[in-house]
Amino acid sequence: MSEAEEQRWVTVMLDKLAAQESKRLLGDAELVERAEQLSEQYFQGRARPASVRWVTNQNTRWGSCTPAEGSIRLSHRLQGMPEYVVDYVLVHELAHLLVPGHGPRFWRLLEAYPRTERARGYLEGVVAADRLPHLPAAREE
Questions:
Q1: CATH number for position 73
Q2: Beta bridge partners of 115
Q3: How many domains is the chain built from?
Q4: What is the Cα–Cα distance from 110 to 100, expressed in whole angstroms?
Q5: Which residues on adjacent β-strands are paired with residue 54?
Q6: Hey, CA dihedral for 129, 130, 135, 140, is it positive or negative?
Q7: Across the beta sheet with 63-66, what order do the strands follow?
């Protein structure tokens, strides 16, 4: 196994362990409860998900929604991020239960969440940081 491949597998396994640990702190039941609160607060309770859960197989998206099923999935990578960021992703996915696409009507719904721009900026920063070359850890001498 090459060094690069080994490093990739170490990263994958550490991500899985972190996701398992974080799930103990904020489980799927708490996500459902939070989604219900946010729906009530921003959409007068009209967005009613059938399920909300953490997943470990979303590495390029922060969240996803299947409106026909009413299911919302959040990437485990959000765990440990500020609450307003997780709330933004939940509000974004809840809005998809009301408007499936990303057209003007969808974005008008998101205007109700006051920290939309801040949360989007935070997530853009995380993506940008992930694209930076990772330098080896400094060695103590």
A1: 3.30.2010.10
A2: none
A3: 1
A4: 13
A5: 74
A6: positive
A7: 51-55, 71-75, 63-66
56-92 pLDDT, tens per residue?
999 889 999 999 999 999 999 999 899 999 999 999 9
Distance of CA 115 to CAs 39, 63, 86, Å? 15, 17, 11
Look up tokens 């799930």; give the residue. 23
41-74 burial string, b = 16+ CB within 10 Å, else e?
Answer: ebbeeebebeebebeeebeeebbebbbeeebbbb
Domain assignment present for 70: yes
Instruction: Look up residue 55 and give its amino acid.
Output: V
Question: Considering only CA atoms, which of 125, 141, 18 is closest in space to residue 79?
Answer: 18
Give the residue numbers spanning the domain of 123.
3-131
Question: Is 138 among the domain residues?
Answer: no
b/e 92-125 (16+ beta carbons within 10 angstroms → b): bbbbbbebeeeeeeeeebbeebebbeebeebbee
Please state whether 80 falls in left (phi above 0), alpha (psi between -120 and 50) or beta: left
92-127 pLDDT per residue, tens: 999 999 999 999 999 999 999 999 999 999 999 999
